[in-house]
Amino acid sequence: MKILVCISKSPDTTSKIAFTDGDTKFDENGVQYIVNPYDEWYALVRALELKEAGGGSVSIITVGSAADDSVIRKALAIGADEAVRIDAEPTDAYYTAMQIAEYAKSNGFDLVLTGKETINYNGSQVAGMIAEGMDVPFVSLASRMEVGGSTATLDTEIVGGIQTVEVALPAVVSCAKGMAEQRIPNMRGIMAARTKPLNVVAPADIQALTSFTSYSLPPAKSECKMIDPENMDELVELLHNEAKVI
User: Fold this and answer.
1) CA distances from 239 to 1, 230, 232, 233, 234 (A)
2) What is the pTM of this model?
């Protein structure tokens, strides 16, 4: 089975976020980038488990510049066989998805996996768009997946329970919590990642549909007020007059 795992770089959660040029650009100075955790922990690790159980290959793909190569190598260290970088700036979800879809269509992948979303944009759009671009089935937010022959069986969460679905391959799946457990790359994997293929390909002629006009930080958290447990009147008064439902 040929599996393609989409990965994205994301700022480390401890990074200080700031913007430049009149809040129109993300300030990357001093930002440490990591592999998007949902892509790494759920999609990539489950792909490796499927390969270990049934053979095949696992490739990773990202849309970005040479600055992303160090993040790609981190993903290779976990166990992927090779990496592909589409040499373009990922300007919006549609552009990113269509670039990946064009590559996947022309290279005969049986399964395309993504994380449920990226931690910096939280859009959860790319996977569905890839499936549309490839004209193949799509299952979102899967928490379990088993593959047998040309069919995948998946669990997805619905209101009040779990839904089990079967889908014919090739297909695209976005992976959520429960799909796999995080793996820590060992020294052997880190050393091997240095020599694994990282293929840079030219982007397809696709136009982005949206653009970012400005960024803003969320309002700062207000001071936490501590109320004496014996003073219920004060608590009720604050809940009526100051508390905000978000």
Assistant:
1) 57, 16, 11, 10, 9
2) 0.87
Buried b (16+ CB within 10 A) or exposed e, 161-190: eeeeeebebbbbbbbbebbbeebebeeebe
Domains and CATH numbers, the chain: 2-215 (3.40.50.620)
Q: Where are the alpha helices (DSSP H) in the chain?
A: 37-38, 45-54, 69-78, 93-106, 126-134, 187-193, 232-241
On whether the CB atoms of residues 61 and 97 are closer than 8 A, the answer is no
pLDDT digits (tens, 9 = 90+) for 4-17: 999 999 988 888 88
Q: What digits encode the pLDDT tens for the residues 28-45?
A: 888 888 999 999 999 999
Q: What's the alpha-carbon Rg for the chain, to the nearest Å? A: 21
Residue 23, both tokens = 């809040």
Rounded-to-integer distance, Cα 44 and Cα 180, Å: 9
Q: Which of 13, 37, 9 is nearest to 180 (CA)?
A: 37
Contacts of residue 25, defined as CB under 8 A and 6 or more positions apart, other chains included, come to 19, 215
SS3 38: helix
